[in-house]
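Complex record, two chains
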Amino acid sequence: MAQATPTTRVDIDAILAEVRAALSEGDWERAVALIEALRPPDQADVFEELPPEEQDQLLPRLDLEDSADILEELEEEDAAEVAARLKVADLARILDEMEPDEAADLLGDIPPERAAKALAKMEEAEEVRPLLAHADDTAGGLMTSAEVLLHKDMTAEEAIAYLRSIAPESETVYYLFVVDEDVRLVGVVSLRELVIAPPDTRIEEIMDPDVIHVRADADQEEAARLMSRYDLLALPVVDEDGRLLGLITHDDLVEVLEEEATEDIYRLGGVPEEQPIDVPVPAALRTRLPWLVLNLGTAMASATVLSIFESTIARVAALAAFFPIVAGVSGSAGTQTLTVVVRGLALGELEPRDGLRALAREVLIGLTNGLVLGGLVALIAAIWKGTPMLGFVVGLATLLNMISAGIAGVLVPLGMQMLRIDPALASPILVTTTTDAMGYFMYLGLATLILPRFL
Amino acid sequence: MAQATPTTRVDIDAILAEVRAALSEGDWERAVALIEALRPPDQADVFEELPPEEQDQLLPRLDLEDSADILEELEEEDAAEVAARLKVADLARILDEMEPDEAADLLGDIPPERAAKALAKMEEAEEVRPLLAHADDTAGGLMTSAEVLLHKDMTAEEAIAYLRSIAPESETVYYLFVVDEDVRLVGVVSLRELVIAPPDTRIEEIMDPDVIHVRADADQEEAARLMSRYDLLALPVVDEDGRLLGLITHDDLVEVLEEEATEDIYRLGGVPEEQPIDVPVPAALRTRLPWLVLNLGTAMASATVLSIFESTIARVAALAAFFPIVAGVSGSAGTQTLTVVVRGLALGELEPRDGLRALAREVLIGLTNGLVLGGLVALIAAIWKGTPMLGFVVGLATLLNMISAGIAGVLVPLGMQMLRIDPALASPILVTTTTDAMGYFMYLGLATLILPRFL
């Protein structure tokens, strides 16, 4: 097996072509067999490429479990569309097969009336209903119901027999959480510890009473941070009285981490809200256009500076050639600093109390960058335009602006953090506005002071 | 318990203060007790804040297991520094307690001579040595040795008895991998399936023979992609003959995901290489300065355009006021497009074959953005400068440059991807160079053609 496939790879395109061929011949049996042979994420990849009519005909022919897997793996919007077209009875049967947290998410994405009807027809509605109460981006919104709970007074042998009797299918069974009479979380035991313990040991004796846990209303980032920091496979979620409500599982952690990284990358790139790559154009515009209009507003600061120095520019139009360097290259330096600071804040490697040290570092880096680049620019300007004093002005402005880029790159994101605004969101626009406006001001200010005496 | 601490939080600063107080009174016992009461990541956070002399005195007094945990949890560079100061015999004893993959990583970070001496004194050197052969950023470099392997001919009962007898401590025991006589990977069984199977079932009957796996020389990103796509807790690593070499565990997945996200964020921000937040200034300069010099080079394109139109600028210096808008705001639009495309490529949501569709979308978005922003800018310019024709020129240039920003934002990263250059690395600088130079060219070109007739 391993020889044939050195690293596991599935050729979705090839399988999709086979499925399409089967469907075009009306060979449903073969199409179903092809899809059922795949693993869930691959099933979803093939399924989502099919036209809606074929999706609708295919889904009821698949194993209920495969249908559930596909709805779990599809992008949220795609799953909601498929669910909206299913008969309510079919939808309810599929929802019963899904992990409770995934079922709850899907129910939250379809029209409330339809969701209520589907819930009414579900057999396991009681597992899903409590999950619907929590906001999507909280710990409660991520959790799934805990299928297996141990009581602290069971023995290891009883616990294993109990596990065998209910034969749990769940993803949540590698850690077993222990509760008291009031379903309050009192400990955790791993399946490994249970298996290797002498059979008559009481759970209370082998459990770890110090369980890392999270409140249902905590932010999902907080939950992800705990799971990744302490290498947890499952994180119990409790209510205000310490009662166990559910578990967050490791697959959710990976999803939250990717979501948070995407959010930071988008925000640093001036796209305030995460969107799927194929979001409709009007939705893309709703997110991006206001940001550009805001950017237009901040650019007016630089426009004003340039306007103030209009007569200097008219006298020495050669100055304009170096705008992209004085403002732009310092802008890049500011973005570098900003990037390091924002990522450091996001990963918890930089705390606001480290601010002064970071500022000193970045000023020093800005000074060194400024000396090298300022010198280089001065040389280029002096030789190209044949005016050494122009070189001096450009070089000095670049040096000064590199330092202000370092300062802005540290202070803006730290200030945002202290104002409880996401530093990734507002910082880039403010830092480049600063380097632009400061750059033009220092460059043209110096030119106005110095150049008239030499030209 | 849960009532007192609604969400698990550890106050590192408070504990650090207590540890410092204990140390200043020479109360080693209390300092050790304070640290040993913490979980490993918190132990490392406290430990790394102490001065080297205190670290060196504290470490030998801690439980061997706690020392090992601390070295595992410290940042790589910090762990290497501590390891460099330890006596070789002490280091070897601690390495024996560490997870084999962590021990191998640490040995790779200290001088080779010292690593060889420590290996020679280790009891479990044979578990670590094979891991040293693999490059850091490959699947082999991530894997740890598989402590527990089942043979396909065992029964479930024998397997459980075997597990109980060796009482594995490892993180790797939630999936049990099954091998044949030649240690070739032939299947996987979860501990859950093992526990709930009738005792006399043969492993071969309950195992899943279709195991997702990766070759040791595959890129670590490939391994992370497989684990996150298929929700794996452990991924087996095989050699070219399909023999099982080791396992990649879920904690490595989280680390790789964060590393890759940081790398993308850094590269998009113009910092080509990931560095810790407190990297020494010279090292920071080595990474950042060359990038700025390159940026200076590309900015010369815009400088040249501006230079060509020097006489136009001299005649109508008011034009300069709108440089930050025509070039800058379109640059922001280009960055938005670029961000969406680069992240889509990284997450596999966008394939090069979707390029044309993405291009059409972004041109449409650029056109709409351009109409709105161009109109707005035209209005501002016409009113502010009292010259309607100036407004027309600025507005039209903005519109055209918004479209070219959309085109560059799609084509540059896709082109990089096809040239097998990381799109996050080279794209930002090329996209903003394009929007800058194109913006100046179209704006000043239009101005030169049109304005003289009206002014």
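Note: The CA atoms of residues 124 and 260 of chain B lie 32 Å apart.
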